[in-house]
Amino acid sequence: MLSRLSIVNYALISRLDIEFGRKFSVITGETGAGKSIILGAISLMLGQRADNISFPDPGARCTIEGTFDISQCELEAFFNDNDLDYDVNCIIRREVTPQGKSRAFINDTPVNLNQLRELTSRLIDVHSQHQTLLLQESSFQLSVLDSVAGNASMLQEYRKLYKEVIALRKELAEVEARDARAQAEADYLNFISDEFSKASLRSGEQEMLENESETLTHAEEIKTRLYAAAHALSQGEVNILRSLNELNTSLQQAARYHREVTELQERVAACIVELRDVDSAIQKQLEEVVYNPQRLDEINDRLNLIYHLQQKHRVKTVEDLLKVFGDIDHKIEAIEQLGQQKSRLAALIDQKSADLMKLALMLSESRRAVIRETENTLLETVSMLGMPNAGFQVGHSLLPEPGRDGLDSIHFLFSANKGVALAELSKIASGGELSRLMLAVKSLISSASLLPTIIFDEIDTGISGETATKVGAILTRIASRMQVIAITHLPQIAGRSDQHFKVFKFDDGSRTYSAIEQLNPEQRIAELALMISGDSDSPAARNAAKELLLNKP
């Protein structure tokens, strides 16, 4: 329940603090005094858009703060899911800067508007004249039956499953679209894959083949140069190794008599060993280098295939081609998996849809079971509200397939007068009739509602006399089950409340402000007398006011 409301720097309100009781509170005041301003501030706190707000102090921020007793609301899961501190005295605050920037807080933790609205929608039901139009909407009418039937948990389970089915269908449609596009290139990908498979590419192959091609292409020249090198090194009549051997012999002889020559001789001997190895390598190369035109043709054919694939796929190395090949294999595998994914999703959708239909049928059965009760209770209440000859019926039909709220299509049919055929509310009910019917609906569903608080904004519009007394009785009945706050202009309603607040205007010489005060018993008598006769000092009106308070349940 809403235990405390604080409004700072909003519209005509400089600062206002209200403490509400648990049962029935009313707010009265002259037209234009600021009752609707208070309701606007509450709506802002509950998550309404912060547009076109005026600030009594243009340089200060606007703050709306409410303290709620949530000890009986079973909201611990919400706080855990949103990583918020849970306290049975929950403080909700909305701040708006003069620049129009808005922030919201739950127990001093910043939250977004979606989180704020999710919480406050489970704390307060604000009923305004505008909301009466909801009564004409099929979705609201269906929610009335669900409230009476106690379908909250079943409907939550159904909507969760419905959301899953819709998401799965969307996913299947996307997979089917991807599969259709993929199938268009599947033949090409398979052709490329076969081409790569036949090519049997190996890492490092290109460089090896290019080197071998270079060798075979210049085999004759290579052998000529190698022969010349061998001739100079060891094969000619005058050659390097023979000359070095002679040099080595001379140095050996000199070293017998001059030890300093020994090092020179050893260096020459090392050169001879190294050059003999070079000579052996040259002889080996001479044997291995053989001109082979057939092998050269094979190599060139292989290189041409590699160059063709590189040009085709716009890469420069065999390693890049192997990566392209791997990517194509992955694409082909992904296309094959799309088919498997389609089958899996279709089977899952069939299973979930069957479960959804079972729940939809259970919901439908539950709703149909309370139609007669709903009709009788609403007729009884609207009769109390001055429409004894009203007719009311819940029209019911089944949809072709389950929707967000199930299989049922609901239409409230109404007639305010005897002999007038029942018709849909939008075609037959006046504003006053809709207002009274909505009050009857609120009375009906309040017993099943988990909401701790309901706020009525001039629910009494268009009624007076005995009907007003009956409205007061109904609000009192609702207040026995939940906190009721009513903005009213009727003394028959105000006199039944447990708390009475009066909104009034005052000025400080420079501008006008709205304020509110809780009335004590004597002030209540004066206010009720004013509402009855327009004169708070009228003895007859004061006696009538006292009578209203004495007869308060």
Descriptive terms for the model:
alpha/beta, six-stranded antiparallel beta sheet, 553 residues, six-stranded mixed beta sheet, 15 strands, 18% strand, 18 helices, Rossmann fold
Number of strands: 15
CA(first)-CA(last) distance: 21 Å
The CATH homology group name of the domain at 1-123 and 452-540: P-loop containing nucleotide triphosphate hydrolases
Gyration radius over CA: 47 Å
Outline the low-pLDDT stretches.
Answer: none
Major pleated sheet: 6 strands, antiparallel
User: Which strand order does the major sheet show?
Assistant: 2-1-4-5-6-7
Strand residues, percent: 15-25%
Helical content class: 55-70%
CATH topology of the domain at 1-123 and 452-540: Rossmann fold
Provide the CATH top-level class of the domain at 1-123 and 452-540.
Alpha Beta
CATH architectural arrangement of the domain at 1-123 and 452-540: 3-Layer(aba) Sandwich
What does this structure look like?
There is one protein chain. The strands form three sheets. This protein has a six-stranded antiparallel β-sheet with strand order 2-1-4-5-6-7. A six-stranded mixed β-sheet has the order 8-12-13-3-14-15, sandwiched between helices. By secondary structure, it is an alpha/beta fold. The model has no long low-confidence stretch (mean pLDDT 87). The chain has helices spanning 35-45, 76-81, 113-120, 138-149, 152-199, 205-217, 219-235, 240-257, 262-288, 293-313, 318-369, 371-384, 425-428, 431-446, 465-479, 491-494, 521-533, 539-550, and strands at 2-10, 13-19, 24-28, 62-69, 89-96, 102-106, 109-111, 124-127, 391-403, 406-415, 423-424, 453-457, 483-487, 499-507, 512-518. It has a domain at 1-123 and 452-540: P-loop containing nucleotide triphosphate hydrolases (Rossmann fold).
